[in-house]
Amino acid sequence: MSSAADVTTAPQHPPVARRERVERVNHGDVVVDEHEWLRDAEDPAVRELVDAENAWAAARTAHLEQLREQLFEEVRSRTQESDLSVPSRDGAWWYYRRTVEGQQYGLICRVRAEAPAGSPEGWEPPALPGDGSALPGEQVLLDGNVEAGDAAFFALGAASVSPDGQLLAWSADTTGDERFTLRVRDLVTGADLEVAVAGLGHGATWASDSRTLLYSVVDEAWRPFEVRRHVLGESAPDGTGDAVVLREDDERYWLGVGRTRSGRFLVLSAGSKNTSEVWLLDAGGPDRAPGEVPVSVAGRRDGVEYSVDHAVLPAGSGGRDVLLVLHDDDAPDFALALLDADGVLDGSADPATAHQRWTTVIGHEPGRRLEDVDAFAGHVAVSWRREALPRVAVLRVGRDGVLGAPEEVPVPTALASSVLAGNPSFEAPLLRLQQTSFTTPVRVVDLDLSAGERDGQLVLRRETPVRGGYDASAYVEERTWATAPDGVRVPLSVVRRADVAVDGTAPGYLYGYGSYEVSLDPWFSVPRLSLLDRGVVFAVAHVRGGGELGRRWYEDGRLARKRNTFTDFVAAAEHLGRERFVDPARLVASGGSAGGLLVGAALNLAPQLFAGVLAAVPFVDPLTTMLDESLPLTVPEQEEWGDPIRDPEAYALIKGYAPTENLPSAADGGPGSPTWPQLLVTTSLHDTRVLYVEPFK
């Protein structure tokens, strides 16, 4: 047998990988996988095959070169490359990000605020230049282009300014393995300190003394398993000897750390797929060190998730420290409760019984999924989801210390997404939101909550420009519903040009995901305009396994009910053809990662429905992955997919839908048949979430 996988490198022929018998035996089931050898990235034959596949893809798409260039120019002509975000005030500065035409990475910048925060004009952001150029007096905190240098890969992780505004904690990954190195920059001199702590997860959090940093580190499986403390001027520059604040040995849980917007507490959290625990530390202050021993808020109860924010409610002549607890205790779509902070902090109250002491603020309502809570000095913002769309509601803090009823913030269109964006200051009298839809460019708005004459008004700060004269009325977005085999109605979002008739002649593009309770919310896309303007109908299938219609929607698309995800997608494809949104013979399916599993499984179920499939880093060999607990993320994923190692039923279930194990025969429309769709499969050799071997198989 040749060492190079019998690969035919001539561009007029597809490459053929060698076959090497590898047996897998589980629960008495013997499986022969002839391509498992591809898992060895050090095998020269693997790289040879990668090169051959890339050459074949280039040869097969060479005739599209002119179209690619045309599309690229269209996207670029519509995109304002030199641009900046609406500044957000934090302390004495306005912070924003800026992009520069021709440069690959963005800049993090700030300008000093001219008016004091206590004045009405103190919250009026600087006027934005129409050409996206720098604001007067700009200080560039970090330029990604400079930091990337000649590196082939660069990703920014943390970018956090210290409470006193003097230091920037930042981290970067230059290999693509999502392991970051932490550094600290002196914003007065612009020079980095000697700090260089490797092996971090994505973030880093300052304590209120502006010299203590808390960060998470990842293990070999890329699981954040420890939160450590680094003290500037005391700790070793490389983090050696940094104290472990919290360690999580249960491989199902990930650790994270942050600071409340009030600045009062550091929040440490551990979470699995369905259980969480939250601890608090006193964040300290300019003249005192932060606390050292975290205190659990409400313990850990299997199957109960909760998150916490800190609020100060008026009480007598001072304020009352309370914790806002978002939880799913006997509330599948979550409820909001209030808990006295004093008993938690002084240890006088048992965290295991905290749920018996909290009082309900927003009760559980099936189908209205509460997702987050954010406390401010004068109001509380709750992010929730209803009718498959994200919304924000505001609860006013009364002078009597009572929270008012939630009031939902208006949205520009029926299918709009409305989420919080850029609200670093606890004292801000404005609430910043980002609103968009499939046809509405991203709008940044401020909701005025200052109790003045503009109280309750939405102030438009910026709509992302689309160059070339974009006209939203030239496009149509609508909601339609497919019916799954079990009778459940599945929502689809459909976008098209207004002049594209619903007569069954248009080509279609169907996108989906359907896992981890991730919701596909409406989003505006400049590149998508090039599809729409060519008459393509773009559709999103909001299948079960996602979170669009609440926790039940997620539960009905995971573990033993995972097949619903795939049959929902098939039903969506059939619906688009039956209702004449698209030409059934010209429908392409697309999904990435777990969405790649979705389109792979749907392809095996109904290959005749699709003219083509785009699978981006697809999770198409889930059984092999879930049988190997040494791989990154496998153990935490058992609560999403099941444990096929110990559970024969989970093994049989995953094997029953795994795309690589269920390819139909040519006689059933599978590979080699005239009706098998064209496939484009993409991957990365360094992806830590879906190993390259899965899509490569």
Account of the 3D structure:
- With 697 residues, the protein is of the alpha+beta class.
- The strands form eight sheets. A seven-stranded antiparallel beta sheet has the order 8-9-10-11-12-13-14, with no helix packed on it. Strands 31-32-34-33-35-36-37 form a seven-stranded mixed beta sheet.
- The chain is globular.
- Residues 1-10 have low confidence and may be disordered.
What can be said about this structure in brief?
The protein has 697 residues and is an alpha+beta fold.
Keywords:
697 residues; alpha+beta; seven-stranded antiparallel beta sheet; seven-stranded mixed beta sheet
- Mean pLDDT, to the nearest integer, reads 94
Sheet of most strands: 7 strands, antiparallel
Number of strands: 37
Question: Proportion of β residues?
Answer: 25-35%
Number of distinct helices: 12
Low-confidence regions: 1-10
Shape, principal axes of CA atoms: globular
Q: Quaternary arrangement of the chains shown?
A: single chain
Specify the structural class: alpha+beta
Strand order of the largest sheet: 8-9-10-11-12-13-14
Terminal-residue CA separation = 20 Å
Helix content: 10-25%
As a whole number of angstroms, the C-alpha radius of gyration is 26 Å
